[in-house]
Amino acid sequence: MKQYLEIGKVNNTHGIKGEVKLAMWCDGIDYIKQLKTVYLDDKGNSPLTLVSARQQKNIAILKFAEITTVEQAEELKNKVIYCNRDDAHIADGKHYLVDIIGCYVVDVDTEEEYGKIVDVLNYGASDIYDVESWGKHTLIPAIPDVIKEINTEYQVVRIKPMKGLFDED
Fold first, then answer.
1. Are 7 and 1 within 8 A, CB to CB?
2. Residues with Cβ < 8 Å from 127, sequence gap 6 or more?
3. Are the C-beta atoms of 146 and 159 separated by less than 8 Å?
């Protein structure tokens, strides 16, 4: 499992005191607010001390102790910001998308293996798992009627397939 997770990308500066605008790739501002330190790489190097985080429309405005001028903030433009997974808490029953990618999809009743999750998409209603098997892709809606168990420790997602999902025509 990846230790350092992407939370978003700095897309611009905000004001003259070193604040930045972050396009959020995480669940939202409450996730970011629980963090005290964020990083400029996926190895935990280049830490930044998070002083404040607030939401403005669909972005986050972040202030770091180490960044005090607009010129310093400019240097962060287009950089991805990471957090240490140990510093953040997610609700029971929730999973990081990065942990779901790579899981095998198995029928909850028959143990038949359908393939491996290679991507997680979202077009609004719910997440959709892109499952690949022998070069063929099947999209599975991540809804309670279909997804019965997610076990990222053993890298398996157990499903009850909807009629027609894996049936060959």
1. no
2. 97, 120, 121, 141, 142
3. yes
